[in-house]
Amino acid sequence: MALRIGLTGGIGSGKTTVSDRFASLGVEVIDADVIAHEVTRSGEPVVEQIAAVFGDEVLDAGGALDRAALRRLVFADPGKRRRLEAMLHPVIRERMEERARKARAPYCILSIPLLVESRNAARVDRVLVVDAPDAMRRRWIKARSALSDEEIDGIMQAQATRDERLEAADDVIVNDGSIEELHARVDALHRRYLAIAESNTAAER
Ligand code: ATP
After folding, report:
1. Smaller CB count within 10 Å for the chain: N or C?
2. What percent of the chain has pLDDT over 90?
3. Is 12 in the pocket of ligand 1 (CB under 6 A)?
4. β-strands 28-31, 3-9: how paired?
């Protein structure tokens, strides 16, 4: 079975850059955001369940979940948000689990932005945290989106703190230099994960 690495980090920390690099090294990446999109497509059973509870206005013209409409609906209503998450999260978790079970050895990456906030989001063997200085995250986020400082603050405050993330981490990848440096750090971790997977396999034999 493939060793499972849970990849996480705060908004704009460099998770996607890191997981893309792992993918370019041939590592299978199972991305919670991608899976969340998959399970909300038209025809998926959970879409029907959610529409039965929240009404057809949460569907788009093609019968898929309208994620923006749903976000608006649960935005100021924690009860509705919990109901929605109680339907959606187990389906996402199960789909990720299925992919991880099928993943080719020696190891796979499960990219889960809120892994530290919801530790039961997936079963992983190690937690890898991407850690970037707040000022850099802010600069990168602003360079690629129209979010204001206040909006960025709001998102950062709703997420785990840096200390909480580091506490949960088995491995930390520091993103405080160039993209090339970040890639080199991923490459070093890749060698380490291959070695860990190899020694686990040897122990099982
Ligand atoms: P989000 O949480 O918003 O999905 P993320 O954690 O996946 O973000 P990325 O998308 O990898 O982060 O990075 C955010 C932005 O910052 C991207 O535009 C990326 O190219 C840029 N970036 C990340 N790391 C660096 C770096 N070391 N130097 C310059 N730009 C960087």
Report:
1. C
2. 81
3. yes
4. unpaired
